[in-house]
Design a protein that fits this description.
Length: 313
């Protein structure tokens, strides 16, 4: 995402895909491909392609302003005093949706600064990797914030506050999200996960009776089941999965929208705190950058209350 944003800013600065390519060392086709990927990821057209010059659309102007802020924040994160011979291993637990999105951007940037540090990423549900942080098996966990107080030795760094969305098959004609999840077979977010628990509590508080068809712990699987016409689902708007395909429809939940908080859990004591702090800073910057790039798409679905950042706990 950061590469595409830099190319996007270059096109705006130099006025055309060809001139931007000359300045940043890419072919016109490569520039066009990156802009197309960016447009697909955020779900909006950035340029009016009727003329020779690259003219921003109204939404493109809004994205450009955000992109400038995002890249400025990334470049100003600061330089840390370290040497090229810094060696060691960091072990990170991470939920699937983070691994498929901004986490890889952050790890690539981290590798450029600390080529001697090996990073091992272990997949896992939030409950499991939190336990591994608490026991000292891993250094940190990218996860959903639990609905209870964290252990005193574990510090929480907030990243994102992602809204949950109701997805239905494209052929479903209704427009009320409550009717959809009670009438259609329900594809449930695994109740052993923090996200699934919050949905279960949400449904219980509103006395909404659903008819379970499947129960899964992976967001991509939930979306795929809706695409296949199995039923309706409540899923988080994670950057790895938006924009959604034409095989599904999103039904706005309005003021009833619930959210999940994504963040980093780490033990307070580290042998090399400047290195772990740098990685956390990069993850924060990349997570916010990718989520904000998707905000125009979320806003177009009626989620204008979506918040990029969550408060630190």
């Amino acid at each position: 995402m950061l590469t595409e944003l830099r190319t996007f800013i270059a096109v705006v600065r130099y006025g055309s895909f060809a001139r931007a390519g000359e300045q940043i060392g890419l072919t016109q086709g490569a520039v066009s491909g990156q802009i197309q990927r960016l447009e697909e990821q955020i779900g909006v057209a950035l340029f009016d392609r009727t003329g020779r010059r690259a003219v921003l659309t109204p939404m493109g102007r809004e994205v450009h302003a955000r992109a400038e802020d995002i890249l400025t924040a990334v470049t100003q994160l600061g330089e840390l005093p370290h040497t090229e011979d810094t060696r060691g291993t960091l072990v990170i637990g991470a939920i699937t949706s983070a691994q498929h999105a901004w986490l890889m951007d952050a790890l690539c940037l981290f590798r450029q600064e600390f080529p001697g540090i090996t990073v091992r990423v272990l997949p896992g549900a939030s409950l499991n990797i939190l336990g591994q942080v608490d026991s000292g098996e891993i250094d940190m966990a990218v996860m959903i914030r639990p609905p209870y107080v964290l252990p005193p030795e574990v510090h929480w760094h907030a990243l994102l506050r992602e809204p949950f969305l109701v997805l239905v098959p494209a052929a479903y004609e209704g427009g009320n999200w409550q009717e959809a999840i009670t009438q259609l077979p329900f594809i449930r977010y695994d109740r052993s996960s923090f996200g699934g628990r919050s949905i279960d509590l949400f449904l219980r508080k509103r006395h909404l009776m659903v008819h379970d068809a499947l129960e899964l712990d992976e967001v991509g699987g939930l979306i795929r089941a809706v695409e296949k016409g199995v039923g309706a689902a409540i899923v988080p708007a994670t950057a790895a999965c938006i924009p959604f395909s034409s095989q599904v429809r999103v039904l706005p939940m309005g003021p009833d929208t619930l959210f999940r908080e994504i963040g980093i859990a780490e033990r307070s004591a580290h042998k090399q705190p400047e290195i772990t702090n740098r990685l956390i800073s990069l993850m924060q910057a990349c997570a916010v950058a990718e989520f904000e790039a998707g905000l125009p798409y979320l806003n177009s679905l009626g989620y204008r209350s979506a918040s990029t950042r969550a408060g630190d706990g």
